[in-house]
Amino acid sequence: MVGSGASVLKRFRSSQLGGMSLPDYGFYILCATAIVLLATQAVLHPSDFAQILVFGVTQGAIYALVALGYTMVYGIIELINFAHGDVFTLGAYIGTAILGFFSLTEGSFTTINLIALLLVFPLVMLIMGGINVAIERVAYRPLRNAPRLAPLITAIGMSFLLEGIMFLWKGPATVHFPDILPQASTTVAGVFFGFKDVFVVVVAAILVTLLALFINRTRLGKAMRATAQDRDAAQLMGIDINRTIAATFFIGALLAGAGGMIWGLYYNTIYYQLGFRSGLIAFTAAVFGGIGNIPGAAIGGLVIGLTAAFSDSYIGSKWTQVVIFGILIGVLVFRPTGLLGMRVPEK
Asked: What residue segments make up the domains of the chain, in order of their start?
């Protein structure tokens, strides 16, 4: 009997139907259940559903920008850079500080507001890129060949350091971000579309597209992909590993800086611990899409943004974080590789 039971258990654990394991089926069953429930709401209350969809896509676009930084760094050096969320927040803080030098008119889109936006937006991105490269050089590069726990602890420490700097700079209270985008809006079939919603989605889509083109078409992008696949082989082929990793941190911080600016322009409120919460959610998005997979991080960000919006509306905002981190646990249990990730041999 014992042998028979062990045999049945072994067959149960290793059973596969149609090329998928039982955890895969569990993952897809959960996804299908969620889709059915949402489809029911879409049929019963189409206008409300569409409005929530707009908010979710807007929020997901911001999470996607932050998630891309997590997934790029992990894909190259297999480091979960927990300080990345605070780089995102610091970008918003630097943005509001620089915007303070302009004579802005809040609530309207004047010529000065447009000039300030066009100057400050790329400037913040470049500043955050430089800061992140310095962080990589000082905190992570000396530990590159150390046990994995060492750089992970260093990343957590760097997160606390950045939060402390923002705390000393602006204090614990929320900080107002200048409201310089137009208040224009329109309503289509009962669904409200604001200029801010369109701005966030369009800018995020442009940045993600440019990143995809850079990774796939440029020489440095190819070097980054080669380094992610096999660092030793890439070095033997003449690729400068240090330069490639620094470029990865730089590009990730460009997107984080853009995300911080977009968050401030959209919500007009920031605080020093914003990166902790938003960073964890963006990390969940990266894991959901497939950590190390760039398209997966973008899709994961959108899915998590939609999940947060639907949870706020249908379940309650108090439960939103429970739902999001429940998704993180579920993905790690049922499909550790995420939506678009794939199993690779241990490096």
From this structure: 61-273
What is the model's pTM? Answer: 0.84
pLDDT digits (tens, 9 = 90+) for 301-325: 998 998 898 888 888 888 888 888 8
Helix, strand or coil, per DSSP, at residue 288: helix
Helices (H), 218-319: 219-229, 231-236, 241-267, 274-289, 294-310
Contact 125, 259 (CB under 8 A): no
Contact assessment for residue 227 and residue 241, using Cβ atoms and an 8 Å cutoff? yes
Of residues 138, 293, 150, 268, the one with CA closest to residue 200: 268
- 291 CB neighbour count, 10 Å cutoff: 24
| Chain centroid, CA 118 distance in Å | 24
15 torsion bin: left (phi>0), alpha (psi -120 to 50), beta (else): beta
State pLDDT tens for residues 269-307: 999 999 888 888 898 888 888 887 888 888 999 989 988
